[in-house]
Design goal:
CATH class: Alpha Beta
Largest sheet: 6 strands, mixed
Oligomer: single chain
Mean pLDDT: 92
CATH architecture: 3-Layer(aba) Sandwich
Shape: globular
Strand content: 5-15%
Strand order of the largest sheet: 2-7-1-8-9-10
Order of helices and strands: HHEHEHHEEEEEHHHEHHHEE
Helix content: 40-55%
């Protein structure tokens, strides 16, 4: 990425100066690796990482770099934009488990919508266009469809980022013991985490099977996840008008992150063996090394 565009990118994403080193040493080589890989059709590239690891920043950087270097047209999506509506999650909370009112874990996304969107984007024809779904986290609900951005075909690649992309389900025995206070207090019978696990092995696995490559941002531990997610919330607050619902204070955020702890730990333990590329993150948030799986 040219210096001027990189400076603008850092400013737009409120990134520290250290990001320039990460971009040069890890992100730009990753973009070149993608360009050098032969693709029979426009690839769907997945980016997985716990909350606050920088998935959306990496996705946007790769899209810009691929465009700069090879004039690729890239659509960028987030699993977050395929959340069920607030009304849909409240219905799940009444019929399945109260914790399903909280967005994020498997079972709270519209996987049929996500799979259909990926398929349509891959085969989007010349002069065809389509809208990309968007979720308004400040409202905790889907954004009005008339506000969704549009993308025109044909595309050279699709990037999908999400915190649980490619994460496998656990064995039933692994679900028995709670991993944190939230599970112990609010899911003592393991009904919520079992429902999540079943969805992960079913409709989510079907979406994950569409990925041509998976990139994993590996966090050092859950303490870093909470700290980075707090920084992410601060950015959301800075970009949101005062008084809007959906903004969390520190205790709310701590409990919110516990909804994701179990599968974040599974990802840390298992994805380095299956992801095509693992970017190992330091506690400082910088990338220590890039590991490419042959």
């Amino acid at each position: 990425m040219k210096a001027a565009r990189l400076a603008a990118f850092c400013k737009a994403h409120r990134l520290p100066d250290s990001f320039r080193r990460v971009a040069a040493a890890h992100y730009a080589p990753l973009a070149r690796w993608l360009l050098e890989t032969p693709w029979p059709v426009p690839p769907i590239i997945g980016i997985c990482g716990a909350q606050g690891t920088g998935k959306s920043t990496l996705a946007e950087f790769l899209a810009a770099e691929l465009n700069d270097v090879a004039a690729w047209t890239v659509a960028v999506l987030s699993m977050d934009d395929f959340y069920l509506s607030r009304a849909g999650r409240l219905e799940l909370s009444r019929t399945v488990h109260p914790l399903l009112a909280t967005r994020g874990p498997p079972g709270t996304h519209d996987c049929e919508m996500m799979g259909d969107c990926l398929h349509r984007l891959r085969y989007l024809g010349d002069a065809e266009s389509m809208a990309l779904p968007r979720f308004d986290k400040s409202r905790d609900d889907r954004a009005p469809p008339e506000t969704w951005p549009r993308v025109s075909g044909p595309l050279n690649a699709v990037i999908l980022e999400g915190w649980c992309l490619g994460v496998p389900p656990q064995d039933a025995g692994e679900l028995v013991t709670p991993v944190n206070d939230l599970e112990a207090r609010l899911d003592s019978d393991a009904r919520w985490r079992t429902y999540i696990n079943n969805r992960l092995g079913d409709e989510y696995a079907e979406v994950f099977s569409r990925l041509d490559r998976l990139i994993f941002l590996r966090t050092p531990d859950m303490d870093a996840v909470l700290r980075w997610r707090s920084e992410q919330e601060s950015k959301l607050i800075a970009n949101t008008s005062a008084g809007r619902p959906g903004i969390m204070d520190a205790p709310q955020l701590r409990e919110f992150v516990q909804h994701f702890e179990r599968l974040s730990r599974v990802a840390i333990a298992r994805l380095p063996a299956t992801a095509d590329v693992t970017l190992v993150l330091e506690a400082s948030h910088e990338v220590r090394e890039s590991l490419y799986r042959q």
